[in-house]
Amino acid sequence: MTTSNEFQRRSAELNDLLCVINVLTWDARTQMPGGGSGSRAQQLATLSALARERLLDPAFEESARQTGQDDGQDDLQQRAASQALEAVTAMRRVPEALTRELALLKSEAQDAWAAAKQNNDFAAFEPALTRMVDLTRQLSAALGDAASGEEGHPYDALLNTYEPGMTVKTLLPLFERLRAHHVPLLRAIQAQPAPRSDFLTRFYPPDAQKTFSLAAAERFGYDTGRGRLDQSAHPFEISFTREDVRITTRFQEHFLPGALFGTLHETGHALYEQGVDPELSRTVLTSDLLGLYAVGGASYGTHESQSRLWENRIGRSAAYWKLHYPELQSTFPEGLSDVSLEEFLRAVNKVTPSLIRVEADELTYDLHIMLRVELEMRLIAGELEVKDLPAAWNARIREDLGLEVPDDARGVLQDIHWSSGMFGSFPTYTIGNVMASQFYNAAGKAIPELEAQLERGEYAPLREWLTANIYTHGRTYTPHELLVRTTGEGLNPQPYLDYLTGKYSGLYGLEHAEQTQEHKENV
Amino acid sequence: MTTSNEFQRRSAELNDLLCVINVLTWDARTQMPGGGSGSRAQQLATLSALARERLLDPAFEESARQTGQDDGQDDLQQRAASQALEAVTAMRRVPEALTRELALLKSEAQDAWAAAKQNNDFAAFEPALTRMVDLTRQLSAALGDAASGEEGHPYDALLNTYEPGMTVKTLLPLFERLRAHHVPLLRAIQAQPAPRSDFLTRFYPPDAQKTFSLAAAERFGYDTGRGRLDQSAHPFEISFTREDVRITTRFQEHFLPGALFGTLHETGHALYEQGVDPELSRTVLTSDLLGLYAVGGASYGTHESQSRLWENRIGRSAAYWKLHYPELQSTFPEGLSDVSLEEFLRAVNKVTPSLIRVEADELTYDLHIMLRVELEMRLIAGELEVKDLPAAWNARIREDLGLEVPDDARGVLQDIHWSSGMFGSFPTYTIGNVMASQFYNAAGKAIPELEAQLERGEYAPLREWLTANIYTHGRTYTPHELLVRTTGEGLNPQPYLDYLTGKYSGLYGLEHAEQTQEHKENV
After folding, report:
1. Is the separation of the CB atoms in A503 and A349 below 8 Å?
2. Distance separating alpha carbons of residues A485 and A474, to the nearest angstrom
3. Cα dist. B499→A246, B186, B362 in Å?
4. Which of A8, A21, A25, A42 to mutate to test binding with chain B, by most B CBs within 10 Å of its CB?
5. Closest Cβ–Cβ partner in A31, A224, A243 for B228
6. What are A284-330's pLDDT values in tens digits?
7. Does B228 sit within 8 Å of A33, measured CB to CB?
8. Mean pLDDT across chain A
9. Taking 70 as the threshold, does the pLDDT of residue A150 lie above it?
10. How far apart, in Å, do the first and last CA atoms of chain B sit?
11. Largest CA distance in chain A
12. Beta bridge partners of A248
């Protein structure tokens, strides 16, 4: 066996383990009886420990090194080898005891969070969160020197595990620019009469929601021969190689948009995973080796760009509903027969400041994200104490959205992320929004007929362009490389700002806001 | 860490891996989209190889040896250690290349078998089956010397992997005795008018079947907080520790008994797994280390004794239906309103020679098993060639059941077992039948009120007795030890023969057959 084969064999075994971890995770969230949670946690811990052991096996490192030094290897092999070596180096910096402590704390903290949210009692969560922040700061310190050098922010190392190459130095100016755009636009929208949306909370039979949602997913090109749609409390997408990519959604009897757009969102993620080059299956290039998670997307942000593109850019567009609203209406005659296309379109694109991130519209969503990122950066930098978190949260909600937080359950306790130790993941939602518009514009340049195709419901050309330019590459390129290859430049919020301004100006009859043209340079 | 802790830690890791293999198997059979089968096979192969590696790790053997030699360890630890050492010894005897060849051939042979069955073309399966017999003979030879010494049959080593301690020398006289009982009883039954059973193939709405079946499972004590009922092509039960024990059945629109009794059968298996002592979770004593399968039952036969006991002894009894038939009738008014309790009871206990094992009644079922065991013993001994198998099969069906096999799909191709390399597993179905009556009689002795309780639908006392005497012990004891502890003797067919004679004499109005009293000694 040549060294390269040895590297491939070990990479395949590692990827298999990560895929199995994903299967267990999917099962736990969609099928498992309640009694199984304890033993499932042990099974997951055993698999994670095994994957970590295999990753840190000196023979794996050696096989990667030899592959990297072998000029006969193709570019993909070289990239796989170098990513493997980076992951090994990073994983080595994290003491095994810290990994174990974090894993143990994670389930404890999630339980504490769930109970605290249920009882609206932040104090009950505070000790676990304090410990989580402490351990995460240790993690950041362990990873940190490697990630960003001396001039970096302690948050960089965490951010990098979700969005390779992204730093606070890049992120903060981006956020400033978004805020400078979003807040005035929000004020302008709030000055207009609010569209009606009462009909969205009528009774919508869940079975019909599922039928319509699945058909919509398939229309975009989701291959149910390599996937399936289930129900779960929190919608998600997960893959066990490109041949088995599953999505979930939630069918709420009295809230139609949840399943409708949730499914399109997860479909975007799924199209990414199903579109990865088969050659990359069972390799490092479909493995998040640090996160011990099998995934084909380049980063969390890149992945989110595709869920947002298909959900928002396509799924909330006038062209989409002009074509598909009659079918939706005939599926739900009791809910929608008295609602015009125009009313429906304005309702599903309605902008309203709200307390809950996952219910937020496209515009205020970014404000929710920035709030979280600012607070978690200060926690990780040691500039904010956990006990002061609720007050800081509530102050920002007041400032940005003009709302009073009535209780912590609808405030600082609403998200699971911090209890899971996912510090550094929030920025990727907004990065995804920004990337989505860049990718969409690049597709538009490459396919002059794009708008006309979408108006006819022809989604294949767009999907195929995205597949050829993004999906097929798996994790071969960094997000920045992918952007440059595809759009000719790095992360640039201008297309996103133009999209939002144009969209809401049309929907709310605003004059074109000036501030979107202020900045043209990349951030 | 003491050595015992080291043994426990390694055993827990191994059991976790086996539980995960079971999760992947369950998912593949109930949830997985078709496209996922290739990558799932690779994931399973990787996990099996890992489990094998951990089992054969010299450090595991050493930890087991030290535990076995440590007088401070309790009896359970000693037994776990000795079972681990036995498994290591046996697994070591099988060359890794043979294990790999068998695993590869298994999926190839299953595909060939499925296609051959579909097209009724035994010749298309013959090459794969010939190779499977050849590799299985090699497996038997590798395991064999250890298993049964010089005077043994080559089939013994295979039989032992499913039914520890069972040999051809014990099995054949048992079979002779069953045959001597069953065939005359069958002839006597055939001389009587056949009960009507046409109503069983009326339309029975699948949703109502599921509701009734699940309620019936819960009535026996199946804990759905630690389990769930799904649909699959071939019903089965599988566990991922006692805390997550899942069953499946098949809801056929035009065949009520399939789901009805299939669910009770799998419930019997599930009660066994859910009843294992929590202390045995994640140990060798809930691990089939040779089969690389997590299971709490002592053997295939012991497990089958519980599925048969709950399905047949309880679920097909007059007492059961006297109590529950009104509910069944009101669940399916269109199918059963014109059918009396008596008619229903006779229909679901109707004896008819048939071509298909899985559709056979309690009496002819054993004849199907004996036919298969005789043929597979001759294959493994090299006394029968694969090309002569269909003729041998058809001859035995003619002789035992008086039927002509119209095609191989309804003959030699009907079962998946041989294509899966499961030579040696068929006897355990009949062994289970025999054991079921022994256990049931022992329960009756211990619980004088048993019959009265069952007539009142009180299943808890029986389940609790079975739990305390059988289920709780997991794989601690061999089947023989369990029988002796529980019934005071080894395998003895007399209670089973008495049960069948009594049952069918009543249902068919026969005079009590004499031959059941001919033999009293154990076999």
Report:
1. yes
2. 14
3. 50, 14, 11
4. A42
5. A31
6. 999 999 999 999 999 999 999 999 999 999 999 999 999 999 999 99
7. yes
8. 94
9. no
10. 48
11. 71
12. A230
The pTM (predicted TM-score) of the whole model is 0.94
For A388-435, how does the pLDDT look when each residue is reduced to its tens digit (9 = 90+)? 999 999 999 999 999 999 999 999 999 999 999 999 999 999 999 999
Q: Model ipTM?
A: 0.93
CA distance B119 to A48: 45
CA distance B249 to chain A (A): 16
Residue B2 has a pLDDT of 53
User: What six digits make up the tokens of A205?
Assistant: 């039979």
Helix/strand/coil (H/E/C) assignment for every residue in A29-60: HHCCCHHHHHHHHHHHHHHHHHHHHHHHCHHH
B266 tagged catalytic: yes
Residue A2: count of CB within 10 angstroms of its CB: 12
Interface test with B, best of A11, A44, A243 (most B CBs within 10 A): A243
Q: How far apart are the first and last CA of chain A?
A: 48
Q: Which chain A residues are closer than 8 Å to B23 by Cβ?
A: 23-24, 27, 43
Q: At what angle do helices B427-446 and B300-308 cross, to 10 degrees?
A: 60
The DSSP bridge partners found for residue B325 are none
Is the CB of residue B243 less than 8 Å from the CB of residue B226?
A: yes
Tell me the three-class secondary structure of B109-162, residue by residue: HHHHHHHHHHHCCHHHHHHHHHHHHHHHHHHHHHHHHHHHCCCCCHHHHHHHHH
Q: Which helix (H) or strand (E) holds A230?
A: strand A229-231
pLDDT digits (tens, 9 = 90+) for A185-207: 999 999 999 999 999 999 999 99
Which of A293, A298, A230 has the alpha carbon at shortest distance from A262? A230
Query: Which SS3 state, helix, strand or coil, does residue B97 take?
Result: helix
pLDDT (tens digit per residue) in B271-321: 999 999 999 999 999 999 999 999 999 999 999 999 999 999 999 999 999
Residue B24 has pLDDT above 50, yes or no: yes
Q: Quote the CA–CA distance of B389 and B500 in Å, as a whole number.
A: 31
The percentage of residues in chain B with a pLDDT greater than 70, rounded to a whole number, is: 96
SS (H, E, C) A136-177: HHHHHHHHHHHHHCCCCCHHHHHHHHHCCCCCHHHHHHHHHH
User: Are β-strands B229-231 and B245-249 bridged in parallel, bridged antiparallel, or unpaired?
Assistant: parallel
User: Tokens 């069955």 — which residue?
Assistant: B117
Q: How far apart are CA B401 and CA B403, in angstroms?
A: 5
CA-CA distance, A295 to A288, in Å (whole number)? 6
Kindly list the distances between the CA atom of residue B522 and the CA atoms of A56, B147, B173, B333, B489, in Å, as whole numbers in the listed order: 58, 23, 10, 47, 8
What's the whole-number mean pLDDT along residues B2-6? 73
Residue of chain B nearest A227, judged by CA positions:
B33
> A138-147, A252-261, B470-479: which has the minimum mean pLDDT?
A138-147
Residue in chain A closest to B11 (alpha carbons) equals A46
Strands (E), B178-305: 229-231, 237-239, 245-249, 287-288, 293-294
- Output Rg (C-alpha) for chain A, integer angstroms: 23
Catalytic residue positions of A, numbered: 266
Task: Give the nearest partner residue to A20 out of B24, B35, B244, using CB atoms.
Answer: B24
Q: What is the pLDDT of residues B71-120, one digit of tens each?
A: 887 899 999 999 999 999 999 999 999 998 998 898 889 989 999 999 99
Helical segments of B416-492, H only: 427-446, 450-455, 460-469, 479-487
**Which tens digit of pLDDT belongs to each residue from A82-112?**
999 999 999 999 999 999 899 889 888 998 9
User: Between chains, do B23 and A19 touch, taking CB under 8 Å as contact?
Assistant: no
Angle, helices B168-190 vs B154-162, to 10°: value is 80
